[in-house]
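Hello K.,

You asked for the raw outputs rather than the summary table, so here they are, unedited. I folded two proteins back to back in the same session to keep the settings identical. This is the first:
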Amino acid sequence: MDNYDFRSSLEVNWHEELEKLGIEHQYETLKVSMKIDGVETTYTPDFVLPAQGLVIEVKGSHPWEGKSMQKTRMLAKMGYSVLKCTGEGKFNFIGNESSSCFILKCPACSRHFFSCSLDETCPFCSDDTVKDLVYDGSEGISAWRTRKELDRWLFDKEAFDRIHNTLRSESRDAHQNVYEKLCGVPQMLSYSYDLIEKLKSLFRKYPNMKEVERFFFSVIDTLPVRKDQTISFPPILLEGSPGCGKTSFAMEFGKIVAEKNHRKIELSNGVVNFAIAGSERGFNNSETGIILKTMFSDGFSPVKNPLIILDEIDKCQRDTYASESVFHTLLEKRSAKVFTDNFFGIPVDASKVNYIGLCNDSTRISRSIMDRFKHFYIRDYTRKELRDTVIPGIYENWLHDEQVNLARVPRHLSREIREKILKLCNGKPRKIVPLLNDFLRIYLHNDSTTYTFISLFTTRERKNWKSLCYQPAEETACDTEKSLLLDTAWMEEP
């Protein structure tokens, strides 16, 4: 190896590639003194290309952070032309990451060089007809696209080319659109300190989810012994009666861990297979299924481990084989790795997708599907939990979702008001939000800062409120109502 004592196999790979292209290079011959955080240090980049005046720093895909990256950026600021090369065979110039980077071949002198433009003049012979692209830095070096690297993609590009070329012209654009959204090495959603703190706060709002909480944090506790901190858990099933908080918990959980890459699908409409696995090309309304849709969001890299919420899974048509077969495929990692969307038509790696199933009666779910879930039964709330935890939590979400002007309504509800809400909704959480929406409509319609929630809570009080609204001239009634409201402890600090 030319007597070089390389420090990693990755440096060997890049050395061999530069040798194959005939690009003159030297290994660790440049030593640059610099000051990092007030401390003098010496930095030795991996390769120097003297003919191009170029410095190359080689690192894996992920470790481009910390002091190593700080030194590399400092080198670029000192006037050096620095090329960042990764373990994927990709490359780009430090300080110019927004621009493309290429390896070109001069047609006149047949020498290779790195450039930010496809219309570059050869730095060796000054020929201005250089357009012969060898490698695209954003795509990487094709020789490195081994089977192992292809596994990191969501699908096999060669398979796409074979199928795409057989399509009719009217289907190609839609097919190409899905391809462009899924191509490239996908990102992995991962845990962070802030995310874990948000999950702790979420579980405090759902006191009947203690078992689910213990499960998730047992998964998080294993992060130090796993290779990465990616969000990954076995499919879970939350069973409970209507109003126990299953759906609202799952949706809030999805917003926290997956942001744009989470979706809820209703399974009670009898079109499970089409909704999840897409519809066949050729129909006017054909489209890809929810699995692929959740993996990508416009303008962002695809995500390999999104979250799918399967609502009312117990109401699927059990007599429809297709409805169950799609779950048999997706809920097993081995078969999910080659999941084929009916519209896209190419096996896609869906083995990292996370699932939360919701149901009211698990006895209506086939045993073969139940065996693929980790099952949790969610009990109903106690009266105390509804009053002290659930109602304040729903009110907080309502203020945020409705974008309520906090100068016009209380930030927190008093115990008295929470008791009145509890009585009016008859202990059913689903009735709370409609009550709050009624309040908002009436409250803002009257443009009042004096009248309060009390107007909602009984038929008589609501009738009196409407009377006040449309007959403001009745001073006696108005004064009486004001007195009642002002004497009510309707707001308190938590």
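The second followed immediately with the same parameters:
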Amino acid sequence: MIEEKNEIYKLVYVLMALAILLIPFNNLPYLNNILKELSFSATSYPMLILITIMAIYILKESKVVKVKDKSIYILITFVILCFIFSVLNISDIMTNSFKGKTGIRRFVFQYPMLVFGAVTSYCFYYFLRRTKITLWTIRRWVLFSTIIASAYGFIEMLNMLNIIDTSEILKAVSKVIQLYARGELYPRGIRTVCGEASYFGMYAAFVLPWILSYIYTEKEYWKKGISVVYALYFIALVLLSKSRMGLLIFWLEFIIFAIGIIIMRGNWKKKLITVLLFPLVFLTSNIVNKVGFTEEVQYENTASNATVGAVVESLNDENNMSNVARFSMMKAAFRIGNQHLLTGVGVGQYAFYATDNVESDDYRSSEVTRWLDPEQTQYWPTVFALHARIYAENGIICFLIWVALWAYIGISLLIRYIKYNDIKTLILMSSVAGVLLACFNIDTYIYYPLWILIGLYWRFGKENIEENSGERDEEIFFNYGDLWKRKRGRKLS
């Protein structure tokens, strides 16, 4: 076991903390030519070092840390089948070409992203089992991460509400940390340190339950009060993002978390807090509506006000060009999946088939035209939904395995919560629900909350794995080095 005083442990502790703290920095403008999709997220950099350290330890010790959950086999099966089915499509992949990019190039750069995501899950689990890092430690890192985002969001809010002109500060910082609208004043609502308002919504999907949990775990009343105020402030920032997906995720997560508290056995104080929290949240929503939504909506992918009804109405608007663009890409993905049902078209190959699978009416969206026009090489077709992408690129079998993975995790967490009624499980369960919904807004595999949550579930989401349980080495490790020696008929030293 790595001891706390050990220098490597200290380094691992810092790197894991940074991996959490830097999650909202998801649109960096550096090293794209070298690291590709990994370059956009600041979390990639500590993760690359962590994975390297893990690989060194595994090779040095000839041991891997055992995952005590069947979902590991589901994930491994998914990753392997994605590769096998892509190989079965290799003849088409070799001939695919669009906007100067080839099918083989896309596969070579995209499949490693999937592998990297899965390795991230295991890496988190690996070091959580070998160190004394608890879920409450992770929560503290998440809190600090939100404070960084919230502080910058406050500067944005001052400018957005015309309280103080902070535009020059925002432009200067944006030039350093953001690729989209780099060095410019972002026009579509609060995005904090994230790339876009919708990216902030996807970040909030991960962190919101962790923030809410402080309201129920702090003992002193003054700390509870601060926790309530901070949670409401963060919620206000999410609402002021004006991101339709962000608003939808917030309301879903808040309701799930609240229901989880209300059905909790006993503990009437927590239930009372939840009952009182509802009117405070609705009051916050009304205030945000009055002060933050005073101007007419200029961008079709933003909400007209901070209510679920407004979001649903906007998403159902067939004349909304943002809807036309995004839904057309998703529908194209399902058509591609239906045409290549068993094996899909191969990892990274969606864009090569998109043109033939959009309807003529979809071209009324200028975005669709830009994405599918071979002459406009700066724009690349995207699915906007990871789940739909998996169906198109990997086929029905892989898609069902992907669904099975998250169904297994979700049901396991639900069973554990019903059995133990612990706030830790509720945090993980709510966060998983929000992150999965966020995957309808993004199609990259480099969405770190997705993979980090799997690692946290493996470590803290099972009743037979307790924090700081003091497991013996033989309970933690699988010694593949000894197994290899036995298979070769060599004596063990």
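The longest strand covers residues 64-65.

Happy to rerun anything if the numbers look odd on your end.

Regards,
P.
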